[in-house]
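User: Design a sequence. Structure:
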């Protein structure tokens, strides 16, 4: 072991080390005070009673280990107990006597302790090795035993099983720590929250002093109180970042948890009701009013304070709800929990019903002890990680994996009623878990099973339904499709369909995944002339009419939903024409079917017009993804049958232009190039980025041109020339910024024209399913969606490019102000896609590191930027953004990368087919995401929201031809030239 000690001439900052190096008998009262000051810096020691801390100061020693030093080995007989003051140490366990086989099971950080085996002289349970330079506090065996007898409960809180299992019962003490409720009402508020409470109190006294006053209720006077409802009203009016009343409740709850705000009867949950609350500063009588200087400071700090509380408020609200017993939770409470759980990975495979049931018994627990449970123990709860991470440890194998936020553990032991298969050890402090106890877990399974109906044919399941807790308008029981064969699902909807039923919409939106139009159209046609059951002629007639009405209703919804896509399928148009002919004959006999004839006629005529147009005008997309003149034209949807003129470069930088279909595969493109060049060599198609990265295009890749990066190019060459390919000079992007062009343009005009362009691109986009499930599986292009996503990247890089190409500090500051203004106007126009792109561009490392530039930015703009960043906060799966969107009315241009992430998350976390049956729950979740897009586009974008200026054409041309550098390495180098690293 190598220990480093302070020299006699140590600096004042190491004075405490010199004191610890003295023999205990030689330490003066001043020495003890110096050591005590240092120990109080360790948060874990805060809960120690003062007498214990003083005795530790009197008897402890200092150890400093360099990185990689073994403090002691597994099997050694110990002589000392240790606490970690700084650094970290690995805990290694071996099942054999060979130390080479030791496996790291966890890491000890600041505030943890180990070495308790000295209490009964048992061998060390693990090997301890310093992970980095670490400072330890050491107490020898005799002194530690004496301290343990007096202060066992306090010392047990630092111990970290399972590598030091204590026969004296400390594990039970630690387990008890975990099962306590979250620590509401801490005696000493954090400094930041205490300041937040003071700022809010001063602001209220300045802006609305009537809110804090003596109040009488039931003949009793309550001093200097506020009313809960008034506090919520006031906070909602102060800032746009307070999104809802429940959001404001969470912000006040964060203050209530730490006693910065108190309920007069000490209730631990803040309520938006006529209840009395008092600020901490008003607890004492005769508290002086804030001075004018304090009011001014609070006014300056108020936006930042509200922003801080807005970030932590949702967590506090969730903690408050989870603290309630299940029977006390309201419908709104369950909705909040449900929204929180909606994107948790552990629940992705569960049905909506199960997720909602899970909301009911869920409890939240903090974890301060190091072990959640040990291998071999009885399973009593299922856990979901809400914050933090844990190691899964198996005796003899060590750490077998690590679980992070959104993962779950402990379910297997509950399902199989078997002992825990592994130990769960915390990797960090202050982890948060959601917990479902065994009794509740079993009840959920029983309820789900009791409400599930399975239909079989020939002893094989063909349809699984789940009873809905809500009755239909007719009072009958409603069932939801969970899974089934495609044909049986269609049959179920045709038999039980109601016009406003959302599950029918789910089928219409998602059917192409499991039932393409080539299969759906014949089945619908077969349903139309449905054979009649035995009975009277009137009964047969009514039965046939009802069947035809249901088939027509589904067909009309299908045709209206996929109107754009049907243009590319002659078989689907032929089906509609055939159905229209049959309906024309039937409508003469039945007045009940006449209402459908007009609607179907409109659809058939529209499809015929579109089909004729497609034949008459074969639109060619010339350089659609380059900076060509076509960017000035209004965008039209890119269709599968469209052609594109595609430049493909050779290794000598010459190029050939080929004409191929938009959905052409990599093989078709390379064959067209070989034919054009007359080459007999075996060529490969390569995507060459501006950063020099080369990616060989696979032969089956569809619509290869739309996968190009912004400055990327396609190359074709023999495979042996692949390594010698170099990028084109024009791929490097601009060498000078365009600020001189757009700084004279109004920020609002720029944002407006960006929104107009984004809306065109967004309106053309119809390929979410192809993107999620793989366009190769549909042989469809996703060019419209790709173009929209490229635009997001382009706007983001435009911000970075312009800043990094601006050599003057004052001009860069003006640029930042300009971009913040543009972002603000984009948000005003509900263009959240460009809003996010601009803010993400400003947070790019090449821009965010320019400290001299940011320091010069006026405070007002810094506050705006901080508010925008809060909206982009990714915590809790972008909860801040999601809450913002729910408050907006269409038209909206949403943050598309997040919506695609949601769909991909659902797709990858759930099987599409379960035992040959369609997993319709998965279809339903993805359909909800597609409905969000439909909702955003449900109203047209109003071009009159911004009064046109005389240079609108110039602004329009500029925003549609943004030239950018898309090489992050080049942008970083430019950034360092502007502001070199500070030494």
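Assistant: Done.
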């Amino acid at each position: 072991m190598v220990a480093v000690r302070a020299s006699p001439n140590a600096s004042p900052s190491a004075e405490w080390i010199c004191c610890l190096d003295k023999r205990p008998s030689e330490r003066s009262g001043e020495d003890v005070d110096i050591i005590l000051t240092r120990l109080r810096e360790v948060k874990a020691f805060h809960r120690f009673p003062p007498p214990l801390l003083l005795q530790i100061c009197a008897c402890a020693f200092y150890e400093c280990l360099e990185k990689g030093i073994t403090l002691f080995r597994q099997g050694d007989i110990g002589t000392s107990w240790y606490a970690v003051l700084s650094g970290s140490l690995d805990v290694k366990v071996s099942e054999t006597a060979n130390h080479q086989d030791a496996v790291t099971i966890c890491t000890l950080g600041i505030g943890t302790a180990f070495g308790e085996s000295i209490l009964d002289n048992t061998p060390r349970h693990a090997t301890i090795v310093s992970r980095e330079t670490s400072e330890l506090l050491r107490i020898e065996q005799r002194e530690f035993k004496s301290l343990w007898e007096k202060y066992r409960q306090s010392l047990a809180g630092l111990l970290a099983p399972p590598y030091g299992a204590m026969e004296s019962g400390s594990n039970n003490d630690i387990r008890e720590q975990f099962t306590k409720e979250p620590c509401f009402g801490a005696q000493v508020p954090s400094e930041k929250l205490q300041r937040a409470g003071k700022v809010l109190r001063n602001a209220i006294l300045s802006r609305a002093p009537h809110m804090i006053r003596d109040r009488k209720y039931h003949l009793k006077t309550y001093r200097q109180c506020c009313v809960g409802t008034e506090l919520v009203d006031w906070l909602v009016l102060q800032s746009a970042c307070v999104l809802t009343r429940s959001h404001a409740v969470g912000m006040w709850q964060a203050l209530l948890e730490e006693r910065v705000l108190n309920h007069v009867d000490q209730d631990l949950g803040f309520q938006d009701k006529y209840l009395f609350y008092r600020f901490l500063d008003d607890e004492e009588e005769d508290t002086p009013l804030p001075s004018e200087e304090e009011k001014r400071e609070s006014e300056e700090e108020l936006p930042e304070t509200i922003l801080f509380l807005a970030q932590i408020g949702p967590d506090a609200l969730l903690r408050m709800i989870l603290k309630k017993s299940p029977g006390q939770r309201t419908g709104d409470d369950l909705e909040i929990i449900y929204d929180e759980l909606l994107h948790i990975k552990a629940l992705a495979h569960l049905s909506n019903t199960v997720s909602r049931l899970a909301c009911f018994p869920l409890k939240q627990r903090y974890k301060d002890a190091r072990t959640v449970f040990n291998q071999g123990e009885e399973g009593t709860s299922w856990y979901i990680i809400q914050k933090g991470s844990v190691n899964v440890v198996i005796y003899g194998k060590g750490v077998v994996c690590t679980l992070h936020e959104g993962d779950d553990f402990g379910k297997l032991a509950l399902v199989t009623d078997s002992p825990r298969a592994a130990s769960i050890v915390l990797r960090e402090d202050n982890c948060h878990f959601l917990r479902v106890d065994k009794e509740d877990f079993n009840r959920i399974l029983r309820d789900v099973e009791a409400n599930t109906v399975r239909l079989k044919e020939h002893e094989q399941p063909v349809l699984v339904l789940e009873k809905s807790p809500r009755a239909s308008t007719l009072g009958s029981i409603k069932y939801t499709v969970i899974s089934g064969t495609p044909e049986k699902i269609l049959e179920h909807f045709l038999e039980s369909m109601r016009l406003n039923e959302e599950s029918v919409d789910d089928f219409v939106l998602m059917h192409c995944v499991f039932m393409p139009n080539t299969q759906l159209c014949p089945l619908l046609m077969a349903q139309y002339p449905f054979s009649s059951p035995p009975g009277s002629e009137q009964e047969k007639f009514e039965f046939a009419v009802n069947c035809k009405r249901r088939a027509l209703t589904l067909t009309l919804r299908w045709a209206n939903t996929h109107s754009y896509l049907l243009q590319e399928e002659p078989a689907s148009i032929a089906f509609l024409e055939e159905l229209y002919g049959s309906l024309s004959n039937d409508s003469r006999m039945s007045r009940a079917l006449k209402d459908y004839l007009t609607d179907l006629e409109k659809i058939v005529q529209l499809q015929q017009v579109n089909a004729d147009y497609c034949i008459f005008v074969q639109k060619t997309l010339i350089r659609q993804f380059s900076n060509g003149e076509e960017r000035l034209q209004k965008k039209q949807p890119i269709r599968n049958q469209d052609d594109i003129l595609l430049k493909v470069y050779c290794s000598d930088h010459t190029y050939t232009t080929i004409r191929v279909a938009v959905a052409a595969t990599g093989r078709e493109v390379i064959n067209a190039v070989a034919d054009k060049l007359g080459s007999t060599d075996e060529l490969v198609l390569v995507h060459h980025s501006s950063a020099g990265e080369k990616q060989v295009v696979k032969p089956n890749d569809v619509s290869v041109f739309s996968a190009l990066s912004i400055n990327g190019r396609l190359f074709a060459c023999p495979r042996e020339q692949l390594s010698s390919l170099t990028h084109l000079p024009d791929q490097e992007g601009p060498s000078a910024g365009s600020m001189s062009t757009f700084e004279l343009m109004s920020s609002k005009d720029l944002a407006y024209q960006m929104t107009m362009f984004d809306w065109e691109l967004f309106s053309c986009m119809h390929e979410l399913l192809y993107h999620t499930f793989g366009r190769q599986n549909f042989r469809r292009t996703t060019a419209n969606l790709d173009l929209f996503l490229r635009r997001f990247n382009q706007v983001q890089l435009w911000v970075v490019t312009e800043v990094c190409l601006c050599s003057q500090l004052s001009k860069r500051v003006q640029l930042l102000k300009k971009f913040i203004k543009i972002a603000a106007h984009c948000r005003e126009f509900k263009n959240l896609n460009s809003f996010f792109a601009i803010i993400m561009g400003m947070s790019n490392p090449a821009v965010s590191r320019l400290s001299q530039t940011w320091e010069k930015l006026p405070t007002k703009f810094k506050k705006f930027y901080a508010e925008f960043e809060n909206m982009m906060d990714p915590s809790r799966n972008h909860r801040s953004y999601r809450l913002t969107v729910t408050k907006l009315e269409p038209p909206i241009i949403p943050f598309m990368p997040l919506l695609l992430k949601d769909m991909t998350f659902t797709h990858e976390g759930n099987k599409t087919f379960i035992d040959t049956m369609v997993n319709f729950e998965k279809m339903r979740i993805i359909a909800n995401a597609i409905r969000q897009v439909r909702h955003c586009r449900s109203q047209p974008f109003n071009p009159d929201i911004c009064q046109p200026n005389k240079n609108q054409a110039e602004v329009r041309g500029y925003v549609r031809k943004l030239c950018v550098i898309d090489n992050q390495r080049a942008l970083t180098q430019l950034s360092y030239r502007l502001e070199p690293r500070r030494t």
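The chain has six domains: 14-156, 191-323, 333-446, 458-617, 630-731, 740-978. The two ends are 35 Å apart (CA to CA).
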